[in-house]
Specification:
The protein is an alpha+beta fold. Helices cover 34% and strands 24% of the residues. It contains 16 helices and 17 strands. A hairpin with a 2-residue loop joins strand 10 and strand 11.
C-alpha cells in the first residue's frame, strides 16, 4: 500500500510572489513568520493510517502521543529540518526565506525524511510552491501536481476578478497598473465610500489596504512611486468595501481528470480581514445557497480552473451582504485552506449531535512554557478532548504556541493556539472557551485578543 507524504508552508502566497512586483506598505514581522512556519503541524488532519507528516520544526512528542490517542496513526519527524545553520544573521535569514520544499531539496543526507519516506509515496502538499517538483525528484515521490506557473497565476487577485467576467457574475473590481491609475480610480471610488486595495498575493489580512480618505490614498501612491519600488511592476485590484453580513467559503477538489467534488461549506468569523474562526454552516445558509445555484457556480469555477491547467484543492471565499445579496466569488484560493482543515476534523470525529469549530487564540509569554504541561492541565481540568468524552478542546499544533525565533530578544514571545472545539450546544461551547482561557492564563500565557 502506498502512503502519502503531507507537508507545506501555509502562507503560500509569500512564495508565489514575483520579486519585481510592487508591494503595499508593511512592517516585516519575524515573530508572525515564526508562527506561520510552525502551522504546518495542522496538516496532520489530512493523514491516513501510515501516512507521513513532515514539519519544519518537528512535533512535540506530547502532541504526537495525544493525536495517536485520537486514532491519528501517522509518522512524523520529531526534530527540525535544518541545513546545519544555527547562527543568526544572513545565513539564518536565507533559511527562513525558504519554503519547506526548498528546504527538503537541500537537506543533508541522513536526516529524518530519508528514513520516514518510502520510495514511491504520494506527495500531498498544502500548495504547489517553488521547489515542490525538486523535492518530488529527490525523494522519488509520485507526483500528480499542476504546473507551478499555473498555480501562481490562478492564485492572483486579478485572476479571481477576471473569473467573475468569465462567469458573467457582477464584477466590482478595478485593476490598476500605475500609481497614476491608482489615484484616478481610487478618487472615483472614494466618492461612493471606502475601498480596498488588494495585493496580487495578499492573504489573511496582509496585502489588503483599507482606504477611506484621499490622504491615505495619496500616501500609498507616493510610496509606490518612491525609490523602494523603483523598476517594480504595479498591479493591484481595487474594490469597494462590501457591507458584509456573513463570510463563508466553499471547499472543493478537482481531480487530474477534471472531476469536481464539493467537500464542504464553512462559515467564518474574521477579525478584520484575517481568519478568526471557522464553524459549520447554519441550515438557513445552505438553503439559501441551494436556491441561488451557488453549487453550479462553484462547479463552473472548477471547470474554468481545470481548463486553465489547474487541478487539486480549491477554497472559494464568498459573502452574504447586508442588503440581502450574495457575492459568490470574492477570491479563489487554489490550495488547501484552514476551512478544509476544519472539514477534516469533522470527518475524523463523526459524532452525532456534536458541533465543531476551529479557532485561534493569540498569546504572549515571558518565559519558557512546556507544551506537555499545558496538555496535562487541560486534561486535569476536564476540557481536553478524548474519544470517550465526546466534547472538549483539541489542540491542533504544539509549535505555534512558542515558535522558534532566532531573532528573539529578552521580553515576551508571541504565539498562537490553534484548536478545534467539539461541543453539544452553545452553552457547552461557552464553557469550553472560558475554561480554555483560564487554563492558558494559569499556564503562564497572556491572551492578546
Amino acid at each position: 500500500m502506498k502512503h502519502a507524504v503531507h507537508c507545506g508552508s501555509l502562507e503560500s502566497e509569500r512564495y508565489w510572489r514575483e520579486e519585481d512586483l510592487a508591494a503595499l506598505p508593511s512592517v516585516p514581522d519575524a515573530k508572525a513568520l515564526a508562527i506561520v512556519q510552525a502551522m504546518d503541524e495542522l496538516l496532520f488532519v489530512f493523514c491516513g493510517s501510515g501516512d507521513i507528516l513532515l514539519t519544519r520544526h518537528g512535533m512535540d512528542k506530547a502532541q504526537y502521543d495525544y493525536l495517536q490517542s485520537l486514532n491519528y496513526s501517522f509518522k512524523t519527524n520529531m526534530n527540525p529540518l535544518t541545513l546545519g545553520v544555527e547562527a543568526p544573521g544572513t545565513a539564518q535569514n536565507a533559511l527562513n526565506a525558504m519554503n519547506v520544499f526548498e528546504l527538503l531539496g537541500r537537506l543533508n543526507p541522513g536526516q529524518e525524511p530519508d528514513r520516514l519516506i518510502p520510495e514511491g509515496s504520494w506527495l500531498e502538499p498544502f500548495a504547489v510552491l517553488p521547489g515542490t517538483h525538486e523535492a518530488v525528484k529527490r525523494y522519488k515521490l509520485q507526483p500528480a501536481l499542476p504546473d507551478e506557473q499555473t498555480v501562481r497565476k490562478v492564485n492572483t487577485k486579478t485572476y479571481s476578478a477576471a473569473m467573475r467576467d468569465r462567469l458573467l457574475l457582477p464584477n466590482i473590481a478595478v485593476v490598476v497598473h500605475s500609481a497614476e491609475e491608482l489615484l484616478q480610480s481610487g478618487q472615483a471610488l472614494l466618492e461612493k465610500g471606502a475601498f480596498l486595495i488588494k495585493d496580487e498575493y495578499g492573504v489573511s489580512g496582509k496585502g489588503n489596504q483599507l482606504v477611506d480618505s484621499e490622504r491615505i490614498l495619496r500616501r500609498i501612491a507616493g510610496y509606490l512611486e518612491s525609490s523602494r519600488n523603483q523598476d517594480k511592476r504595479i498591479k493591484f485590484v481595487l474594490e469597494p468595501l462590501l457591507d458584509r453580513e456573513t463570510d463563508f467559503s466553499c471547499q472543493f477538489h478537482i481531480d487530474p481528470e477534471g472531476r469536481i467534488s464539493i467537500l464542504s461549506v464553512q462559515q467564518l468569523v474574521n477579525h478584520g480581514f484575517a481568519f478568526g474562526e471557522s464553524h459549520s454552516p447554519e441550515p438557513a445558509l445552505l438553503e439559501r445557497l441551494d436556491r441561488e445555484d451557488y453549487w453550479e457556480i462553484m462547479h463552473s469555477i472548477g471547470r474554468e480552473l481545470y481548463a486553465d491547467g489547474y487541478f487539486g484543492d480549491v477554497c472559494v471565499d464568498s459573502m452574504l451582504l447586508r442588503d440581502g445579496s450574495l457575492a459568490p466569488l470574492v477570491e479563489i484560493n487554489a490550495r488547501k485552506s484552514m476551512s478544509l482543515i476544519k472539514h477534516n476534523v469533522d470527518r475524523q470525529l463523526k459524532q452525532e449531535g456534536t458541533h465543531t469549530c476551529l479557532l485561534q487564540v493569540p498569546l504572549a509569554t515571558m518565559g519558557e512554557v512546556h507544551y506537555a504541561e499545558l496538555l496535562g492541565r487541560l486534561e486535569r481540568e476536564g476540557i481536553l478532548f478524548s474519544l470517550g468524552a465526546g466534547e472538549g478542546v483539541i489542540p491542533l499544533a504544539s509549535g505555534t504556541l512558542q515558535p522558534p525565533d532566532p531573532s528573539r530578544s529578552a521580553g515576551s514571545t508571541k504565539g498562537k493556539l490553534y484548536a478545534a472545539l467539539a461541543y453539544r450546544d452553545e452553552d457547552s461551547k461557552h464553557r469550553l472557551t472560558s475554561k480554555l482561557d483560564e487554563s492558558l492564563l494559569r499556564s503562564g500565557y497572556t491572551i492578546l485578543r
